[in-house]
Amino acid sequence: MVEPVKTPPVNRDRESGIWRNYLHLIPMVVVAVAFVGLWELVFRLQIRPPYLLPSPSTVARALYDLWISGALPRAIAATLVRLGVGFLISLVLGAILAFLSVHFTTFGKGIQPYILGLQTFPSIAWVPLTLIWFGFSETGLLFVTIVGSLFAVTASFADALRTVPPVYLKAARNMGSDGMDLILRVTVPAALPHLLTAAKVGWSFAWRSLIGAEIIFATVGLGFVLNEGAAYLLLSQVIGVMIVILVIGVVVDRGFFSRTEEWTRRRRGLIPSR
After folding, report:
1. Helix, strand, or coil here: 268?
2. Helix 188-217 vs helix 222-231: angle between axes, to the nearest 10 degrees?
3. Could you read off the pLDDT of 159-202 as tens digits, one per residue?
4. Scanning 47, 225, 226, 263, which has its CA 20 to 30 A from the CA of 158?
5. Considering the entire predicted model, what is its pTM?
6. What is d(CA 157, CA 205) in angstroms, rounded to the nearest whole number?
7. Which domain holds residue 124?
8. Using CA atoms, how far apart are residues 118 and 127, in angstroms rounded to an integer?
């Protein structure tokens, strides 16, 4: 007699866990659908002329044409490469300045007012100086990205480092830790959740600075495509690229920074594990 083949039991806990990972997306999807529905309603009511407010389908068609032509993929790739390089440089420089200002009190007191002042300095105001120094070049775009985020990174990193309890440092020094060993094994791990939040602040400044610079003097990139649409009165292209910029910002925030912060807090027991 042939025995029936036994199928392995379905892991219900694993399936429910997978679904729970995506539950946080439901409110975002609901808001997006409601916004598109309201947009379509305003378009059909002709509250604004179609040439000033195109329909969602027209914007979607414009994005599709940009993608098929290759203009949108090239723009996204160019912008993200510039952002990655500029943001990484600003993180390194900002971390160095933050460590110096925290560990050398006199230096910190002297530089802090200027860091805070330059943090509020509009990044677009750097463009005239950038054009004189670097011209219409990739170096100029990187420069605006770096200076647009460097001071926010420095101030946020310094605040994060100051959250480390002094008793941690004293205990580590009593056990023989000092110098870079103290920084890498005590200071950075203790301040890690706040450092991640500081990095997210710097990313937002870098993102805004780069897009603004691309609108003014880039020849490829999302800012360039946005400005090109405005120059030719292509409102569907303008709105479409604005949506792409928004989506990239949300994906980076929710897909990287928020997940990394959540993982760090869970490892430290600040939020309950699943």
Report:
1. coil
2. 30
3. 888 888 788 777 877 777 776 777 777 777 778 888 888 899 99
4. 263
5. 0.84
6. 14
7. 56-267
8. 15
